[in-house]
Give the backbone structure.
Amino acid sequence: MILRIKIGVGCIKRWVMKNSFFPCGIIIGVFFCWFPSYSVARTQLPPACVDSKTDQNGFLNELSTEDFNKSAIGALVDGVFVKSLIGVNMDSLRTFNIVSGGPLTIKGIKTENDSIVVAQKDFHKNPVRINGMDYTRFACTSFGKKVELLSLDDIRKTYFPQMEDTPCMYMANKFFLMNDLSSYKFDKDFILKVELLKSTDFEEFKHAPLFYIIRIFTKTRENLKHHNVMRLK
């Protein structure tokens, strides 16, 4: 991002010195500064045009862990806040809409029965703050049927009850989950497998206080392909 900004500023300076078309320099400089953030925002949403070869659940893989965790795009399943599309099977959706203005009712903010009504018309100008995070758009989805959504805590208790209250970190596919962990929810039927790693498995943490890493794999095509190959072996 910094490199792009420097390039943009350099373009402006050269245009000012060598050309009389100063407005063109401004346009080019602004484009270079704006383009990277626009590209990141595009990859936080599934592709608009897909065919049978497109893995609609693989689009997030283009993001870095930092960009994934800083995403300003929230996700809802039948109005329930699930934070991210990473726990949603895009191949099974009945409806998918991007909403950037109210009124919008968001359910399940803290508990199943908690909800808020967002009235502001432009979320870009007035972001929606949920559990300390700001959102400018929401991917509103529906499966056309009831789905069972599991929080990270639900997953921990279901798969690894022996952990009790031992501290843990979470991963979803390749991403470490870094903030507002209580908001993440996964479609139960979209979970492929869940792995448990102990801190003592890492040489650097052998003598540190014990903690766990819970890694959730979803049924993306890539994950399924690898999973099936491993089963055949």
User: Anything to note?
Assistant: The first strand starts at residue 73 and ends at 77. Residues 79 and 141 are 8 Å apart (CA to CA).
